[in-house]
Amino acid sequence: MRVDLRSDTVTLPTPEMRRAMAEAELGDDVYGEDPTVNRLQERVAELLGHEAGLFCPSGTMANEIAIKVWTKPMDAILVDAESHILHYELAGPAVLSGVMMDTYPIRGGRIDPVTIPSLIRVADDHTPGTALLCLENTHNRCGGTILPPEQMQEFRAIADAHSLKVHLDGARLWNASVALGGSLKAWTQWVDSAMVAFSKGLCCPAGSVLVGSREFIKEAHRVRKLLGGGMRQVGVIAAPCLVALDTMVERLAEDHARARRLAEAIAELPGFSVDLRTVQTNMVYVHTECPAPEVERALGARGVLCLALDRHRLRLVTHKDVNDEGIEYAINAFRTVG
Ligand code: TLP
Questions:
Q1: In the chain, % of residues over pLDDT 90
Q2: CB within 8 Å of 18: residues ≥ 6 apart
Q3: Is the CB of 7 within 6 Å of ligand 1?
Q4: Atom 4 of ligand 1 has which residue's CA nearest to it?
Q5: What does residue 136 show for φ and ψ, rounded to 5 degrees?
Q6: Same CATH fold, 251-337 and 11-247?
Q7: Substitution site in 61, 140, 146 for ligand 1 pocket (most atoms within 8 Å of beta carbon)
Q8: 91: left (phi over 0), alpha (psi -120 to 50) or beta
Q9: Ligand 1: which atom is nearest the Cα of residue 206?
């Protein structure tokens, strides 16, 4: 048996998604003429309570477009010390936007807003000025943890007091909304731009939508072209995203329940520990007594794939293509490698 827990990005599209791809109504999206893409952009903008949306090939590109639109070279942006933008986007903000990244602390997925104001830089002859505050929800490197909507208002107030824009990396925002049972707007009403991804738990082959004001999206459209992200009859990729909005969102609750089962079982095993407080959505971070890369290899030899994030930490992500049987198989594999 093969149980792939490396990421929810490994999910395959459903037969209904494949049918929608084959039948999608298409046009040239660089001219704004793909009806399927337009429908998706409008629907996501509406869901997130923003004026307009832009379909992007990846979450990374959507984040980097937002940073480029909100800043100018020699600015600074504030990202948390564990953020995807800092760790996994190849210094994109420096390379693509000419800005530096300052980091604010995050622990166990929690941010203390009082830490932020003292990190905001005011531009002068020597210093870059902070232009943008970035948030991530759910938080990948903190274990899929949820930043509560109440906190978003606090971040908004800090940003307003210092004339900063706020961007939300909501690659897994649907996981947060399903876990807490609220609408996406509970979070996105407090930010100037947000990205949501379809290629994670929603199981689509590719695609993210960036939302914001009409003026922001107009500029974002230009930057997407600059980055080579202007695609043509891309309704073939947008079509499964529309299917996902109807069929894949509520299903995320199953991934969360399986992550909890996995976490609780592994936490009982010798040689491993799990901070169960951080298991809030579809991720499980396991602390390993043996070196994590060795555990990763031993599990891999038994058909259970996961990622060693550092010397003693493994990441497991649940998703549509791992069922209850797969979870029990993975738990048994952990029993044999501990
Ligand atoms: N994350 C991937 C890897 O890049 C680490 C994963 O397997 O989790 N924001 C967040 C919070 C993400 O987790 C990811 C993908 C992205 C942005 C980037 O999305 P893509 O892969 O579409 O560029």
A1: 99
A2: 240
A3: yes
A4: 88
A5: -135, 130
A6: no
A7: 140
A8: left
A9: 22
At residue 59, the pLDDT reads 98
Ordered DSSP codes for 223-276: HHHHTT---SSTHHHHHHHHHHHHHTTTTHHHHHHHHHHHHHHHHTSTTEE--G
pLDDT in tens, 298-327: 999 999 999 999 999 999 999 999 999 999
In angstroms, rounded to a whole number, what is the distance separating the alpha carbons of residues 227 and 235? Answer: 20
Q: How confident is the model at residue 190 (pLDDT cuts 50, 70, 90)?
A: very high
- Spell out the domain ranges in the chain: 11-247, 251-337
Ligand 1 centroid – CA 171 distance (Å): 7
Q: Which CATH architecture has domain 11-247?
A: 3-Layer(aba) Sandwich (3.40)
Q: Is 53 in the pocket of ligand 1 (CB under 6 A)?
A: no
Q: Are 208 and 173 in contact (CB under 8 A)?
A: no
CATH T-level assignment (fold) for domain 251-337:
Aspartate Aminotransferase, domain 1 (3.90.1150)
Res. 338 pLDDT band, cuts 50 70 90: confident
Ligand 1 contact via 169 beta carbon (within 6 Å): yes
Pocket test for ligand 1, best of 80, 84, 147 (most atoms within 8 A of CB): 84
